[in-house]
Specification:
By secondary structure, the protein is an alpha+beta fold. It folds into four domains: 89 residues, Uridine Diphospho-n-acetylenolpyruvylglucosamine Reductase, domain 2 (2-Layer Sandwich), CATH 3.30.43; 119 residues, Uridine Diphospho-n-acetylenolpyruvylglucosamine Reductase, domain 3; 118 residues, Alpha-Beta Plaits; 79 residues, Alpha-Beta Plaits (2-Layer Sandwich). The chain is built from 16 helices and 19 strands. Strands 12, 13, 14, 15, 16, 17, 18 and 19 form an eight-stranded antiparallel beta sheet that branches. The protein has a five-stranded antiparallel beta sheet with strand order 5-6-10-8-9, sandwiched between helices. Helix 1 packs antiparallel against helix 3 and helix 13 packs across helix 14. The longest helix is centred in the last third of the chain and has 22 residues. The mean pLDDT is 96. The structure holds flavin-adenine dinucleotide. Flavin-adenine dinucleotide binds next to strand 3, helix 5 and strand 10.
C-alpha cells in the first residue's frame, strides 16, 4: 500500500521531492530535541494544486499527514510519530509572495514564506509587517498561522490571527477553499478563517494567506528599566498604556535569575542592572510612533521620569540608537539559550489576567518552593500581553535530567493548577501539539471539548490531519 502511495506522491510533486532516505533529522526531530519521530516520507509540494493532490492521495490511502513549516514549534505539533506511517507535508517550497497591495495595506503570501523574509518584503514596500519572534529566521507564516503565534508586538498589533484577513486552505478531502479577498469587513456566515488559525494543522492545510500591513513608525524608542517588584512592573505597564497610548509596542519583563543566566552563559552581552538590589525585575519597553523622534523621545522620557518619581522604576536607560535598541532586545531573546546552557528545564507558556499576575507569581513561587525546596523559577515574558514563560529549573545541586524525570509531572501539576485557580491559560502562545494534549483534556471544559471534537469530526472525519495533536482521538 505504502509503495503505491509513494509512487503516486512522486508523480504529483516529482521524485526528488518525496524524501524517504538520508538524513531526515530536520523534519523528524522537534526544535528542542525532545523527541525523534519516523516519517513514511517527507513530501514537498510546490503549489496549491499539488498540495490538494497529495492530500487526496493520502486520504484515499488512509495515510496521516503532518503539515510542517519551519519545524520551530514548541508543542510537538510538526514532527511525525514513531510509527513510520505518517507523511510529513513540508510547505517550505511554497514561498512566493503573490501580491503586495499597498493601497489595501495587505500582502498575499504562500504558507512556506519565512517570517523574516515577509518583514523585509513589507519594509521594501515602505510598510511594516509587525509579527516578530525569536524564531523569525526559520519559522514560516503557515506555521505562525497554524499556532496563532504571538511574539513581541502583540500589545499593539495582536496575535497572528489579528494580522490575517484571509486564507487559502486545502481541506482534509483535498478540496481548495480560497478566502484571500483581503476584506476588512465580511460577515457572510461562519468565520472559517478563524477556525483554521491556531488549529495546528488538524483541520486543514493552509497554503496561502492575506496578511495586514501597517505604516512604518517614524520613530522607535527602546528602554530598559529596573523595577523592584512584579506589582510595580504591572503599575509601570498601566502608566505606559496611559501615557503612550497606541505607541506602546513592546512590554517584556525579565526576572533577575533569567538575566543572571544570560550574564553567566553569554558574558559578552552586557546586561543592564544585573544583580542590582532594587532590580528584582527588569522591563524592556518599546514605543513606536508616527510623530518625530524628538517628540516621541520627550514623551517616552516623561513616562520614565514619572515612573521614577512614584518609585515603580528605580533606574532606566533609553537606547540612543537602533544598534543599542537591538542589543537590548538581543539580551531578552537570549534568555531561552542561556537557560538551555544551564541545563534541561520545564517550560511553561502561561497567561493570566494582568491584574492577577503579581498574586499568581507570589502564590506559584511559594507553592513550588514548599514542595520542591531549592527549585529555581526562571520567569520572563510578554507582560504586556499577560503572558509569562514561567520556566522551572532544577536546584543548583541537582542533576537536571534526573530532576525532569522525577519532578516534571509534579511541577506541571502545581503550575497548571495555580494557573487555573487564577483564571489563566496553560498555553498562551505555543499551542497544544502532542505535548499538552493531556492538559487540554483536563483544563478545557467538557462543553468546549465537545464542540472542538464536533468541528474536527465535521472537517476531517477520517482523522488524517495531524492525528494525536490538540485532541486525543
Ligand atoms: P512548525 O513548527 O512547522 O509547525 C507548527 C504547527 O503548525 C504544527 O502543528 C504544524 O502541523 C502546523 N502547521 C505548520 N504549517 C502549517 C500549514 N501550512 N498549515 C496548517 N498547519 C501548519 N511562538 C510564539 O507564539 N511567540 C514567540 O515569541 C515564540 N518564540 C519562539 C522562539 C524560538 C527560539 C522558537 C524556537 C520558537 C518560538 N515560538 C514562539 C514558537 C512558534 O510557534 C514557532 O516559532 C512558529 O510560529 C511556528 O512556525 P513554523 O513554521 O516553525 O511551524
Amino acid at each position: 500500500m505504502s509503495t503505491a502511495l509513494l509512487a503516486t506522491l512522486r508523480s504529483i510533486v516529482g521524485p526528488t521531492h518525496v524524501i524517504t532516505e538520508g538524513d531526515m533529522t530536520a523534519w523528524e526531530q522537534d526544535w528542542r530535541r525532545r523527541v525523534r519521530g519516523k516519517a513514511l516520507a517527507v513530501v514537498r509540494p510546490a503549489s496549491t494544486p499539488e498540495v490538494a493532490a497529495v492530500v487526496k492521495a493520502c486520504a484515499a490511502a488512509g495515510t496521516a499527514i503532518v503539515p510542517q513549516g519551519g519545524n520551530t514549534g514548541l508543542a510537538l505539533g510538526s514532527t511525525p510519530d514513531a510509527s513510520g506511517t505518517q507523511i510529513v507535508l513540508s510547505l517550505a517550497r511554497m514561498n512566493a509572495v503573490r501580491n503586495v497591495d499597498t493601497a489595501n495595506l495587505t500582502m498575499t503570501v504562500e504558507a512556506g514564506c519565512i517570517l523574516q523574509n515577509l518583514q523585509e518584503v513589507a519594509r521594501k514596500a515602505g510598510l511594516l509587517f509587525p509579527l516578530s519572534l525569536a524564531a523569525e529566521g526559520s519559522c514560516t507564516i503557515g506555521g505562525n498561522l497554524g499556532t496563532n503565534a504571538g511574539g513581541t508586538q502583540v500589545v499593539r498589533y495582536g496575535n497572528t490571527r489579528d494580522l490575517c484577513l484571509g486564507l487559502e486552505v486545502v481541506t482534509a478531502q483535498g478540496e481548495v477553499w480560497s478566502g484571500l479577498q483581503g476584506l476588512r469587513k465580511d460577515n457572510t456566515g461562519y468565520d472559517l478563517r478563524d477556525l483554521f488559525i491556531g488549529s495546528e494543522g488538524t483541520l486543514g492545510v493552509i497554503t496561502a494567506a492575506c496578511m495586514k500591513l501597517y505604516p512604518q513608525p517614524a520613530a522607535t524608542l527602546t528602554a530598559w528599566a529596573a523595577v523592584p517588584t512584579m506589582e510595580q512592573a504591572a503599575q509601570l505597564l498601566g502608566m505606559a498604556h496611559q501615557q503612550l497610548g497606541a505607541g506602546l509596542t513592546g512590554f517584556e519583563v525579565m526576572g533577575q535569575l533569567a538575566l543572571s543566566l544570560v550574564g553567566k552563559h553569554l558574558p559578552q552581552l552586557r546586561v543592564p542592572f544585573l544583580g542590582h538590589k532594587d532590580a528584582a525585575w527588569c522591563v524592556l519597553l518599546e514605543n513606536s510612533d508616527s510623530e518625530s523622534e524628538d517628540h516621541a523621545r520627550s514623551r517616552f522620557e516623561a513616562l520614565l521620569q514619572a515612573a521614577l518619581e512614584v518609585g515603580c522604576v528605580t533606574d532606566a536607560v533609553v537606547a540612543e540608537n537602533l544598534t543599542q535598541a537591538h542589543q537590548l532586545w538581543h539580551i531578552r531573546e537570549s534568555i531561552p539559550l542561556a537557560q538551555a546552557e544551564e541545563g534541561l528545564n520545564i517550560k511553561h507558556d502561561i497567561s493570566i489576567p494582568i491584574s492577577r499576575i503579581p498574586a499568581f507569581v507570589a502564590h506559584a513561587d511559594a507553592l513550588l518552593q514548599s514542595r520542591i525546596p531549592g527549585v529555581r523559577v526562571v520567569n520572563f515574558g510578554h507582560l504586556g500581553d499577560g503572558n509569562l514563560h514561567y520556566n522551572v529549573q532544577a536546584p543548583t545541586d541537582c542533576d537536571a535530567a534526573a530532576f525532569l524525570r522525577d519532578h516534571e509531572a509534579q511541577v506541571n501539576h502545581i503550575v497548571y493548577e495555580a494557573v487555573a485557580e487564577f483564571g489563566g491559560s496553560f498555553s498562551a502562545e505555543h499551542g497544544i501539539g502532542q505535548l499538552k494534549a493531556d492538559a487540554l483534556q483536563r483544563y478545557q471544559s467538557p462543553v468546549a471539548l465537545a464542540m472542538m471534537r464536533a468541528i474536527k469530526n465535521a472537517l476531517d472525519p477520517q482523522g488524517i490531519l495531524n492525528p494525536g495533536r490538540v485532541l486525543i482521538p
